[in-house]
Fold this sequence. Notes:
- The chain is α/β, with parallel strands linked by helices.
- It has a domain at 62-163 and 172-210.
- It contains five helices and ten strands.
- It has helices spanning 7-20, 37-40, 59-65, 126-142, 181-191; strands at residues 28-30, 52-54, 76-79, 84-89, 98-102, 107-111, 118-122, 147-150, 200-201, 206-210.
- The strands form three sheets. A five-stranded mixed beta sheet has the order 3-4-5-6-8, with no helix packed on it. A three-stranded mixed beta sheet has the order 7-10-9, covered by helices on one side. The chain has a two-stranded parallel ribbon with strand order 1-2.
- It is globular, with a radius of gyration of 18 Å.
- One zinc ion is lined by residues 34, 36, 93-94, 112.
Amino acid sequence: MLWLKIRPAIDRLVDDWQAKHDNAKVRLIIAHSHGHGDHHAGDDEFRDRPDTDIVGLTPKDVASYFHISDWPRDIARFDLGGRVLDIIPTPGHEPAHIMVYDGRTRLLFSGDMLYPGRLYVPTDKFGEFRASADRLAAFAAKHPVRALLGAHIEMTTTPGQDYPMEAATHPLEHPLPLKPEAITILQHMAAKAGPAPVIDRAADFIVYPVPPRPAP
Ligand SMILES: [Zn+2]
Ligand SMILES: [Zn+2]
């Protein structure tokens, strides 16, 4: 696997911002949609960076950083400074999973819960997944969502057709953004999954039960 360093790109973005804002001090917050290794593998590059918060990976860490008192039912309003993000706890794929909604752009960063690909859910976590899908649908009913931006693409442009596992190339790849209707479709799929969920294909994503994961 080829790992590219992420820090130079982030430092450049922050430097550019500061240059345009009279070198105002700005804190960098590193938070993840959830604690799987493919998402936080770059954190170590930032451990010695000044003015940086690296949010922990457990539900407790995430709840405490964003001041979520009733995890996973509360939705936190997190003010970056004149720009408020909504932090939506959405456990199921992984216990500390969150989505982030940016009201200014109306974009919903949907992590690994909802993207054009295989949505992996441990079979023993379907209850949490279903509850998260319900809370997400309730949120979307009250907030305008332009598009969902998830963390992976595993679908082709052919409806319902994914690439093989670990495919090295993705010809004719589904675009990343999903329409807000995907939330309702996911909610219905989660609702009808029942006690023994099976692989369930929609045009733009696949609900994909996997065996329970051992606790980290
Ligand atoms: Zn994941
Ligand atoms: Zn992932």
